[in-house]
Amino acid sequence: MIANKAKILLVEDDASLGFVIKDNLEINGFHVTLCGDGEAAWQTFRQAAFDLCILDVMLPKRDGFTLAQYIRQYNTLVPIIFLTAKSMKEDKIAGFKTGGDDYITKPFSIEELLLRIEVFLKRSQYTVSQAIPIPVFSIGKYTFDYKNLLLSYGTEKRYLTQKEADILQLFCLNPDVTLKREDILNKVWGDDDYFMGRSLDVFITKLRKYLKADSNIEIVNLHGVGFKLEVK
């Protein structure tokens, strides 16, 4: 498979389905950024380079067709695959008119999605993004430089620990998406046991403190589920 280092933007508002697709693509060697709504996806797309986009059609804040139009104005070459529960001919035509390259109707198999991704990546050879540096994230009024572990607010600068930076980057790569506790623990610590869970709570408290100068930023705790970074 042609997956090595290929970067995929996945936009899916169903968090459970989004994580299933993301995990399966990552198992197959892709680097996947998951967004839960069209607006967050557009901001993410502008901050980094992607080799392929997978867009759900029915999205909050900005639907998949509109998002595709914005992406096409910004990048005419990146492949776009639509995911939708609709199978009407008119919807497929609308998708292609907005710049989509392919259309998969839910439910679908991961194997089918992988095959379609491989076809488009072979065509494009995903060469454009390989020279793009790690992006600097904007979080409300803050700037977050993951590579240098630096969180800035105006002239104020704070250097984060690696774990703090890893967690904050995970939130930045998945804005407005509920991240399950076990997913955060596995990605940052490689384990999801009880004591690691208590450590996660400590780190979340620290990040909230670091970001408190901007009242529009909130790390929401969904009890029994996980956390979500919201920027109003």
UniProtKB/TrEMBL annotation:
Q: Where is the OmpR/PhoB-type domain?
A: 134-231
Keywords, ordered alphabetically: DNA-binding, Phosphoprotein, Two-component regulatory system
> DNA-binding region spans which residues?
134-231
What GO molecular functions are on record for this protein? phosphorelay response regulator activity; transcription cis-regulatory region binding
Q: Which CDD domains match?
A: REC_OmpR, trans_reg_C
An example of a Gene Ontology cellular component annotation for this protein is:
protein-DNA complex
**4-aspartylphosphate sites (modified residues):** 56
Please give the superkingdom of this protein's source: Bacteria
One of the GO biological process terms: regulation of DNA-templated transcription
Q: Which residues form the Response regulatory domain?
A: 7-121
Question: What name does UniProt use for this protein?
Answer: Response regulator transcription factor
Q: What is the lineage of its organism?
A: Bacteria, Pseudomonadati, Bacteroidota, Cytophagia, Cytophagales
